[in-house]
Design goal:
191 residues; alpha/beta; Spore Coat Polysaccharide Biosynthesis Protein SpsA, Chain A; 7 helices; 10 strands; 29% helix; 25% strand; nucleotidyltransferase; molybdenum cofactor biosynthesis
C-alpha cells in the first residue's frame, strides 16, 4: 500500500463553462496541468479521474494513470471519482484536487500534510469560512462511508463531511482555491 496517492478530478461536464475546464489555459498551459504538477510536488502517484470523451483531448501527462468512474456510480460527481480511485488503488491517504484550480500551489498541499494524523478522516482548508472539500486530504477509511453515500444517492460532499472526523485548516489567501466555472470568471481572473 502506498502512503499517498494524488487524485485529479476531471470528470465534470463543465456545463456553465461551455467546454471542458481541464483544457482551458492559463499562460498557455492547460488548467489540468497545474493540478497535476502541484500534486507531483508531494507524490509521484497521480491518478486522473476523467470523462472518457475528455481523455482523448488532454495534453500528454507522463506517469499518470487515467481512470473513469466505476459502475454503478458513473457521473455521480466528486464522491464517485474519489471512491473509484480508492476502490482500485490502495493508499493510506488521498490528496484530491479538481482540474479547474489554475492558481493552486504546492504550499497549500504541504500545509495540509502537516496535519496528517490517524485521528482525522479528512483534512480540509477553510478559506474565509468557506470549506474546500476538493482541495483536501482523505484517509482510506472514508471509503466505506463514501460508498454508503453513493448507494443512498447522497452526493453532496457536505453530507460526507458531516459524518466523518474532519480537521479544518483556516487560511486567508483565496487565490489558490479559485476555481473557474464560467467564461466570465475566466475573462476576469485568467486572461
Amino acid at each position: 500500500m502506498k502512503d499517498l496517492i494524488g487524485i485529479v478530478l476531471a470528470g465534470g461536464q463543465s456545463k456553465r463553462f461551455g467546454k471542458p475546464k481541464a483544457l482551458a489555459k492559463r499562460n498557455g498551459k492547460e488548467f489540468i496541468l497545474y493540478s497535476v504538477e502541484t500534486l507531483r510536488s508531494i507524490t509521484k502517484n497521480i491518478i486522473i479521474v476523467v470523462h472518457p470523451e475528455l481523455k482523448k483531448n488532454l495534453p500528454v501527462i507522463d506517469q499518470a494513470i487515467f481512470i473513469t468512474d466505476i459502475e454503478p456510480y458513473k457521473g455521480k460527481g466528486p464522491l464517485a471519482g474519489l471512491f473509484s480511485v480508492m476502490s482500485q488503488y490502495e493508499a493510506k491517504w488521498y490528496m484530491v484536487l479538481p482540474c479547474d484550480v489554475p492558481f493552486i500551489n504546492d504550499h497549500i498541499l504541504k500545509i495540509l500534510q502537516l496535519y496528517q494524523d490517524e485521528k482525522w478522516d479528512a483534512i480540509l482548508p477553510r478559506v474565509n469560512k468557506r470549506i474546500q472539500p476538493l482541495v483536501a486530504l482523505y484517509h482510506r477509511r472514508v471509503k466505506e462511508e463514501i460508498k454508503s453515500r453513493l448507494e443512498r444517492n447522497e452526493l453532496s460532499m457536505k453530507y460526507l463531511l458531516d459524518n466523518i472526523q474532519v480537521k479544518y485548516i483556516d487560511l486567508i489567501d483565496e487565490q489558490p482555491f479559485m476555481n473557474i466555472n464560467t467564461k466570465e470568471e475566466y475573462e476576469k481572473f485568467v486572461r
